[in-house]
Specification:
Elements (H helix, E strand, L loop, with lengths): L1 E2 L2 E2 L10 H8 L7 H13 L3 H21 L4 E5 L9 H8 L4 E6 L2 H8 L8 E5 L5 H6 L1 H6 L7 E5 L11 H10 L6 E7 L7 H8 L10 H5 L6 E2 L5 E2 L18 E7 L3
Parallel strand pairs: 3-4, 3-6, 4-5, 6-7
Antiparallel strand pairs: 1-2, 7-10, 8-10, 9-10
């Protein structure tokens, strides 16, 4: 598979990578100098970006707890990103120890680090694959070893769909994943938006990275949930989706929408 012209089997250190930039903004160490420089450029262009990525990560934690608390015992995490503790596996198994997790990402560095998270080879796997080919993700034998698509699955698309351009047909990508899921499954999705501030300068930073950023408005993001039923409070800025602590300062500026939705039929 390819991402902007290079094979996913190769590690590209010539350009910043969104997952490594995200890792740096979260305080991680799995990044290179050019990733750090790009992340600092991004923070200069969008000063709330650090609280934004923290809020997005907190949304992920709450959403995973919600879907596992609702009875789901299988998670397909696509666009995993570099591991940050607590990771999806740790969050989920704090609620129910029998959860199966398949991590999917198209960055070899992410795949390498995610593989170190394995605590039970029968219940967890990491797969090098690309969201742009969702059927290949669903059909991957390692994914199928861990995930039974005859039983409810929670698909996580957290801060990843905004790296798909309209030419890459993101709505069709999400629909392909939806159609592979049985009733009772969930979609957890967060997505960058320019609804709350001009993010032209922030987009320019990503244009120099290995994946461009496509900002979408509320209506565009909400359409990714077609065929699902959004749970309360519906699509919201991530700090305001079922918060369990007071939202951080400047939460109203955070340019991420997030939602959780159930497939009912």
């Amino acid at each position: 598979m390819r991402q902007d012209g290079f094979r996913s089997e190769e590690i590209d250190t010539s350009r910043p990578h969104p997952a490594r930039m995200y890792d740096y903004l979260l305080g991680g160490k799995d990044n290179y100098e050019l990733d750090r420089q790009a992340a600092e450029e991004l923070a200069a262009a969008a000063p709330e970006v650090r609280i934004g990525v923290q809020a997005n990560r907190a949304f992920l934690r709450r959403a995973v707890r919600y879907v596992v608390g609702s009875g789901v015992r299988q998670i397909l995490d696509i666009g995993t990103g570099l591991p940050t503790s607590p990771n999806v596996e740790e969050i989920a198994r704090d609620v129910a120890p029998d959860v199966h997790v398949a991590y999917v990402d198209n960055d070899p560095i992410v795949n390498l680090h995610a593989s170190t998270l394995l605590t039970d080879s029968e219940a967890t796997t990491t797969v090098l694959a690309d969201l742009r080919d969702p059927q290949a993700v669903v059909d991957d034998p390692d994914v199928r070893r861990v995930i039974d698509f005859d039983r409810p699955v929670a698909v996580l698309l957290v801060a990843v769909v905004h790296f798909l351009t309209e030419a890459e047909k993101p709505a069709e990508v999400v629909a392909t994943l939806r159609d592979a899921l049985p009733a009772g499954s969930f979609l957890v999705l967060s997505h960058a938006t320019g609804d709350f501030a001009d993010r032209t300068a922030a987009q320019a930073v990503y244009n120099k990275a290995s994946a461009t950023l496509t900002l979408r408005d509320r209506a565009q993001v909400e359409r990714f949930f077609d065929g699902f039923e959004l749970v309360e409070p519906g699509l919201a800025q991530v700090p305001f989706w079922r918060p369990d602590t007071p939202p951080p300062a400047r939460s109203g500026e955070i340019g991420f929408y997030g939602g959780v939705a159930r497939k009912t039929g």
